[in-house]
Write a structure and sequence with these properties.
Elements (H helix, E strand, L loop, with lengths): L5 E3 L5 E3 H8 L15 H17 L8 E7 L5 E6 L15 E3 L6 E2 L1
Antiparallel strand pairs: 1-2, 3-4, 3-5, 3-6
Length: 109
Amino acid sequence: SSRQSPQDLPCGHAIHAHCFRKLAGFDYRCPICKKTVVSASSMSATWGARARDIELQPMPTDLARTVTIICNDCERRSDNRQWHFLGVQCPGCSSFNTALDDATPPTIE
C-alpha cells in the first residue's frame, strides 16, 4: 500500500508516477506485460524508421533465417518471419515490439 500516486498504463497495469517517468527515459514498454505504453501514433514514426533501416541493411545470406515471433502488443504469433538483428516486425499491427518464440527453433536458409 504505497502513498505515492500511481500512473495507470494503457495495458491496465499501474506503476508509481515517478517510476513511470524514469522508465519512459529508456523503455516504451510496460515492465510487467511488455506491451507498448506509448500511443500507436507516437510509435508509428519509430516503427517506420526501423523498417527503413532494415531495408537499407539486409542480412548477409550466411545469417539469414526465419523465426517465429510473438507480438507483445497484439499477441499475434507469426511463423516464417525474416529475422533481422534490428528487430522483426509484426505483420498484424506493424509493431517491432516482438519476441522470438522459444518453442520453435530458428530455420537457417
